[in-house]
């Protein structure tokens, strides 16, 4: 096990211990001083400081390198969100290899994607979003190293109450449980030369490949879903320097023929481009 994996596992375990002690103290009146409950929290941050000092922290930025050019993972008309073309880290964290990640949502026409609402409806069905079920393509010839699609697709979180629930409770619980709960159903491809591509929030049961399979650029791999830490059906895509999002660091990308779309930029990918060769 790598130093970064040990650090992230220890940090997460200590946080869980802290919350467990606080709850147990309140419910059972354990009799020890309250400050004892905070010892795991203190140790968790000691782990972070030591990990950063020794360069093992999974949320430290990766050394700058040239973007890796790959094929687009989608076809059709899409809009970019949380783009690294606007700022990095694009998702406001280096954790889980997300430094240069991007989110894309399908918008085949004006008004085709439900708008965010202040109060009502609290949530929407996934079928209301045009991205749900859209095919995802291999961005290069690669080997499948991780593939999971058993998590459920939950309702959208595109109202203020639903978003508050996601940010305050759901996201923090998922973070404690590890990268797999954040990514939901996901796929990791080994592109070679230490580059791995991640497709996250996939639709339950939609994978067409298994770990160990060899795939070619443009091949359909899965469908867009709404699993994991997701507000609505969309694709979260990123490149990173290892197969484990708990310990990997982000790598910049550019999509052949498209580049890196900026936030709220609408872009079209012709079907022929997804399988194009350099």
Automatic annotation (TrEMBL):
Bilayer-spanning residue ranges: 9-28
Record keyword Membrane present: yes
Name listed for the protein in its UniProt record: M23 family metallopeptidase
PANTHER family found in the cross-reference section: MUREIN HYDROLASE ACTIVATOR ENVC (PTHR21666:SF270), PEPTIDASE-RELATED (PTHR21666)
Entry-linked Gene3D superfamilies: Glucose Permease (Domain IIA)
InterPro entries documented for this protein: Cell_wall_metabolism_enzyme (IPR050570), Dup_hybrid_motif (IPR011055), M23ase_b-sheet_dom (IPR016047)
Keyword tags: Hydrolase, Membrane, Transmembrane, Transmembrane helix
Annotated organism of origin: Streptomyces lusitanus
